[in-house]
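Dear Dr. H.,

I hope your travels went smoothly. While you were away I took the liberty of generating a structure for the chain from your last submission, since the lab meeting agenda had it listed for discussion. I wanted you to have the full record in hand beforehand rather than looking at slides cold. The sequence, exactly as received, is reproduced here:
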Amino acid sequence: MTTIEEFARGFGEEPGYLDYGRVGPVSRAVRAELTGQYDILGKARFGTVERMHAEDERVRSAVSAVTGFPAGQISFQPNATSGLMHAAFGLTGGEVLLSLAEFPSVTYAAARAAQAMHVITPTWLDTAGGPVTPSHIREQITGSTSAVMVSLVDSRTGYLADIDGIRQVIGDRLLIVDAIQGFGVVDAPYEVADVVVSGGQKWTRAGWGTGFLALSERAIDHLTPVFSGWSATSAATQTWDEVIEPAHGAKAFTVSNPDPIAEARFAAALEEVAAVGVRRIADAVSERAERVIDLADEFAIPVSSSRNTAERAGIVVLEPLPEQLTALSASLFNHGVTASVRPTTVRISVHAGTGEDTLDMLRAAFTSYASAA
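The corresponding predicted structure, in token form, is as follows:
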């Protein structure tokens, strides 16, 4: 078992980085994996290519260890959006309930599938400007609803969805979860979902070009693998003179051979996560998010994200008065603090490796901001 301190030593970014919700700088283990894999490919010794294809089994096992889904029900994807597209286009009818406030990868997947396939209808959930909750879904679900799509963590507010509560409300309808803003730092009950997708470029710090699609048995039985390429069959060898049916399982939801070096990067990152344990990472992230909230309170900077630890992951959203947003963003910039500045808010996202030096830089930025206000 790896300690949280040992895990934190794998963070190599410079102090001041508070934007993991946008992208997580790759970990030392991932950089080492990348270098080693390219060295192997560069030499191309006998058997190299065959050995590299074994990374697919490795990464699916690594995803399984974090999500609880069997490795056979997981397929590697180049990003979360590809997984969402597979799921949305695979739906066979009915209304899909989701919020327009979701990150566009979710809403576009539903809308494009409806436009192209003409078998589903996106139904936009009215949340009265708030996060998606089981009560909102209970009030608006209908007999025609066949699936619900939701983000595990809302990208704009940092709200941690109650996917267990949502499952209890929707019954046996398909639950599709975009986990990218919480995967690796939220100890979520993924087993209640039918579809879980994520990319590896944020909290798991595996870099772009990494992700997965995990499917329940019910999802495998109900989804049609629309984008199912030549690599998605159960054939033991490549077929040339016939087109055969997709495999029955997650493998059907692939288009071509995956990038084995990307798989290795993602596997290395997830093996680190599994070694320390998601629960311990989540506790460390929660403690650092609380420190950010305390700093914001000290300098009277309004916090719009939830203060309830059960409703929060690693994102803290600051919402100063509109006329003060420019001053706050300038102060963060001048003190070398990297955060996501949006039209009305500043999104700060911490990780288990966020150290005292970074929090000191944030304090200095807040001090300058308050002095100028």
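Two observations you may find useful: The mean pLDDT is 97. Residues 30 and 265 are 5 Å apart (CA to CA).

With kind regards,
E. W.
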